[in-house]
């Protein structure tokens, strides 16, 4: 299965699971009167909205380039994923905080039929585990293919869908345990304070996940550089060309999932004619695309390495020139 197809499967599975769980938690919350259960229902609703946004991202980001968007629509995936992070905070965390503080500082509420809540949470945990296992399988498999640790892969991942599903499903499993604890302590002590504290804890959990996902997609939208291994490969390939005297500047940017823009300023051999230079640039660009299929756009600019303004610009950005 392709990476895009795997992401779609992961998102669809998570969305279906969250929709079913949201209904069950909402019913259990109304029956038991538990604020933690209602917070978890809002959590699942937020996760369902997130999956809808991620599916939109997967569909719209695949559109081909056109005159208005010459580099394609790849970054639209990051825009919708950013909205998903906002959704987790706005419809999940804020509702959980409201329920928790209302319960803590409001009048004591009586718990009814806690068994219903326990049963719903157990079923929800089992269903969430299925979705979580699929997300883990995709992330671990991709990390193994890239030769990275899972933590490193999550940091460098240019597809927000599996990371978002993994984070939200992990938060969902922890949230279910928090709701279970709040429900149980309320039953044991007779105090709804524990239920409210569990709800606030769920809010903190969701706010943390929303922040992490929001920061990731912010960096991708701004224009993050490509994988360091890809950059190193491009640098080595260009410097190995006999026509290249020095690599003065190298810039990369993610245009979307598996789409990388490469811009290089090169000091070529002064013996090359204008025609030679044109043919060398075309050849090197094709070789870079063949070497790594993630490279979608290549721009090579012939420059003298001794130009003072250019040297100052590169030194200001990197602190050194990209020489052999």
UniProtKB/TrEMBL annotation:
Looking at the record's lineage, which domain of life comes first? Bacteria
Occurrences of domain Cation efflux protein transmembrane (ranges): 12-221
Instruction: Name the Gene Ontology molecular function terms of this record.
Output: monoatomic cation transmembrane transporter activity
Record keywords, A-Z: Membrane, Transmembrane, Transmembrane helix, Transport
Could you say which residues form the signal peptide?
Answer: none
What are the subcellular locations of this protein? Membrane
Q: Name one Pfam family in it.
A: Cation_efflux
Q: Which GO terms describe its biological process?
A: zinc ion transport
Q: Which Gene3D superfamilies match?
A: Cation efflux protein transmembrane domain
The keyword Zinc is annotated on this UniProt entry: no
Its membrane topology is listed as: Multi-pass membrane protein
- A GO cellular-component term linked to this record: membrane
TM helices/strands, residue ranges: 12-35, 78-98, 118-136, 197-214
Q: What is this protein called?
A: Cation transporter
């Amino acid at each position: 299965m392709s990476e895009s197809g795997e992401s779609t499967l992961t998102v669809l599975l998570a969305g279906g699971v969250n929709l079913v769980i949201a209904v069950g938690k909402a019913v259990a919350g109304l029956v038991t009167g538990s604020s933690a259960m209602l917070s978890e229902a809002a959590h699942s609703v937020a996760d369902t909205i997130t999956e809808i946004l991620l599916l939109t991202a997967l569909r719209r980001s695949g559109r081909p380039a056109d005159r208005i968007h010459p580099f394609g629509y790849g970054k639209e995936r990051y825009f919708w994923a950013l909205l998903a992070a906002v959704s987790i905070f706005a419809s999940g965390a804020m509702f959980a905080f409201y329920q928790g503080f209302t319960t803590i500082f409001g009048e004591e509420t009586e718990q009814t039929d806690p068994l219903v809540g326990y049963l719903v949470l157990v079923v929800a945990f089992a269903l969430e585990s299925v979705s979580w296992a699929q997300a883990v399988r995709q992330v671990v498999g991709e990390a193994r293919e890239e030769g990275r640790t899972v933590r490193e892969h999550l940091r460098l991942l240019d597809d927000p869908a599996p990371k978002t599903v993994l984070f939200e499903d992990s938060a969902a499993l922890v949230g279910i345990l928090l709701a279970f604890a709040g429900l149980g302590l309320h039953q044991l002590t007779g105090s709804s304070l524990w239920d409210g504290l569990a709800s606030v804890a769920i809010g903190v959990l969701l706010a943390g996940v929303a922040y992490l996902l929001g920061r990731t997609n912010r960096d991708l939208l701004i224009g993050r550089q490509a994988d360091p291994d890809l950059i190193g490969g491009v640098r080595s390939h260009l410097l190995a060309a006999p026509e290249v005297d020095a690599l003065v500047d190298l810039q990369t940017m993610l245009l979307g999932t598996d789409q990388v823009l490469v811009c290089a300023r090169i000091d070529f051999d002064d013996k090359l004619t204008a025609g030679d230079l044109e043919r060398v640039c075309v050849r090197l660009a094709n070789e870079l695309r063949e070497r790594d299929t993630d490279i979608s756009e290549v721009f090579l600019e012939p420059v003298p390495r001794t130009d003072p303004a250019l040297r100052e610009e590169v030194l200001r950005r990197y602190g050194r020139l990209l020489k052999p």
